[in-house]
Write a structure and sequence with these properties.
223 residues; alpha/beta; six-stranded parallel beta sheet; globular
């Protein structure tokens, strides 16, 4: 039976950048957060920040150091969430692989395959795992993030795989308008994340939006 009192958030890609900022904000607001990422150190730092805030009523952080492309591990995690809480109220999907920029004529197939494994295939495999958990929540919501760089020069691997991710997310969104769960797609403001630094190493990062500020704005759109 689902726990109707406790709000459960599953954040995939939670160790840094926007994912970490959203996981932190959710925990500080009393959510129970299941934080998934490959980087153990990043997850531990996230947990430390939440604990250091010392806010009464802050939610607990469940750290899940795993790769979203490991379907068996993710399936086991979703089963564990079902057994413990019976639902997911919010799924925030920020996990992404940022392949190095290159001309289309020089794409490295290892980068291409890793981009599609993380950005497209993992999304396609996770939706069937998470959808039943969202349906058990009163207002289950999935949140995706668009980055429309497909077709721009040098973004072949990243742009194509991200466009594929958005295609399946939009199909799911259209399919569930009347029956749920709610699927939201947002385009975040430019932020000084590690991913963006790989794409634009020389830009002035001082003019970019702090991920914590952007996390607050994005969570406000869910009300």
């Amino acid at each position: 039976m689902a726990d109707t009192e406790t709000r459960i958030a599953l954040v995939t890609g939670a160790s840094r950048g926007l994912g970490a900022a959203l996981a932190e904000q959710l925990a500080l607001r009393g959510w129970q957060v299941v934080a998934v990422a490959r980087t153990v150190g990043g997850l531990e730092e996230l947990d430390d920040r939440v604990k250091a805030a010392g806010l009464p009523g802050a939610g607990a952080m469940t750290l899940a150091p795993m790769d979203v492309t490991n379907e068996d591990a993710m399936r086991h995690l979703c089963l564990s969430i079902h057994q413990r809480w019976g639902k997911v109220d919010l799924w925030v999907h920020t996990a992404v692989h940022a392949a190095p920029l290159s001309p289309a004529g020089s794409i490295d197939m290892k980068d291409w395959d890793k981009s599609f494994a993380t950005n497209a295939r993992a999304t396609g495999s996770l939706i069937p795992m998470v959808e039943p958990l969202l349906r058990f929540a009163p207002n289950g919501t999935a949140l995706f993030f668009d980055d429309p760089r497909g077709g721009t020069k040098f973004f072949g691997s990243y742009g194509a795989s991200k466009a594929a991710q958005m295609a399946v997310a939009r199909s799911w969104q259209a399919e569930t308008v009347k029956i749920g769960p709610r699927v939201r797609i947002e385009t975040p403001a430019p932020m000084p994340t590690a991913t963006r630094a790989r794409f634009f190493p020389g830009e002035d990062r001082s003019v970019l939006t702090d991920p914590r500020v952007e996390a607050v704005r994005l969570l406000a759109t869910l009300n």
